[in-house]
Amino acid sequence: MTSNTPLPPCSILLLAGGRGQRMGGQDKGLIEWHGEPLIAHLHRKTRPLSDDLIISCNRNLEKYAHYADRLVHDDEGDFPGPLAGIRAGLKVARHHYLMVLPCDVPRIDTALLHSMRETASAHPDKPLMLRHGEHWEPLLCIIPVALRDAFDSAWHADERSPGRIMRNLGATALQCPDHDPRLANLNTPELLSTQKTVSD
Q1: In Å, what is the CA distance from 132 to each residue of 66, 124, 129, 163, 173?
Q2: In this structure, is residue 1 part of a structural domain?
Q3: Which element (helix H / strand E) includes 99?
Q4: Cα 45 → chain centroid
Q5: In angstroms, rounded to a whole number, what is the distance separating the alpha carbons of residues 11 and 24?
Q6: What is the pLDDT along the chain (200 residues), one digit of tens a residue?
Q7: Residue 134 sits in a domain of what CATH number?
Q8: Nearest C-alpha neighbor of 90 from the set 166, 147, 15
Q9: What's the pTM value of the predicted model, to 2 decimals?
């Protein structure tokens, strides 16, 4: 059921700050898929949804700047993981909610992004994560910015799992079909190659 109530504004964080180990150390967001960098696919799908588009990246800042309103980077060196990028995004987000997406899900569609926002707005005090089967997708989520201090406290307690933090905060699940192609992580050369034959 679709609500006629306008959805609240949402900042959007695209995660592109990883080491790219499965890609041989390449900057994953800049690897081409269907003739464009992965980050360009995510930019095209998210740009209409927010006036606060943030990219977390730790290299090639001049290339990523084209796709974002602003860039953030980890405040610790040596690629400390996605939670560092999420914390950086929560610190600068201009709106009350932060949608987080990894740069390697170019097949995500507008309908799912809209469903994420609708579901999150129905549970305004809780994080939302996508889920398929019994598997949570912690990097496909919406986080109320009011929970920023809880994320910082968990970080300083040496927690590095975004999913565990959100589950501890009573996360809402948006259930997707098993093997939903929209959630495919194209994070290896093999997956990029095979998914090139599947229409977007």
Answers
A1: 33, 22, 10, 14, 9
A2: no
A3: strand 97-102
A4: 12
A5: 31
A6: 445 668 889 999 999 976 545 545 689 899 999 899 999 999 999 999 999 999 999 999 999 999 999 999 877 666 568 999 999 999 999 999 999 999 999 999 999 999 999 999 999 999 999 999 889 999 999 999 999 999 999 999 999 999 999 999 999 999 999 989 999 887 545 545 555 544 33
A7: 3.90.550.10
A8: 147
A9: 0.89
